[in-house]
Specification:
Keywords: Ribonucleoprotein, Ribosomal protein. 37% of the residues lie in helices and 34% in strands. It contains three helices and four strands, in the order βααβαββ. A four-stranded mixed sheet has the order 1-3-4-2.
Length: 83
């Protein structure tokens, strides 16, 4: 059974709590951790569009929030960017 949800993932905490040279990698980890927590699964696959959105303005200027569409198929969670 497939389960589909739309989330707005806040990344403001990542911006405020990390040095400028580590913001994008930490944002990617924060997205993955958010989806693990909310979808209750350990296997999370992020689409390349999410990666491009976070890294769009370089390492230290990440977006404040990201909207993603998440589909859970069994134990696997797949996320794609909305916009």
């Amino acid at each position: 059974m497939e389960e589909e949800r739309i989330y707005t993932i806040p990344l403001r905490d990542v911006t405020n709590k990390s040095p400028t040279t580590k913001r994008a990698p930490r944002a990617m980890r924060a997205i993955r951790d958010f989806l693990k927590k909310h979808m209750k699964s350990d296997i999370v696959k992020l689409d390349n569009s999410i990666n491009e959105k976070v890294w769009e303005r370089s390492l230290n200027k990440i977006p404040a929030k990201v909207r993603v569409k998440v589909v859970k198929e069994g134990d696997v969670v797949k996320a794609t960017l909305i916009e």
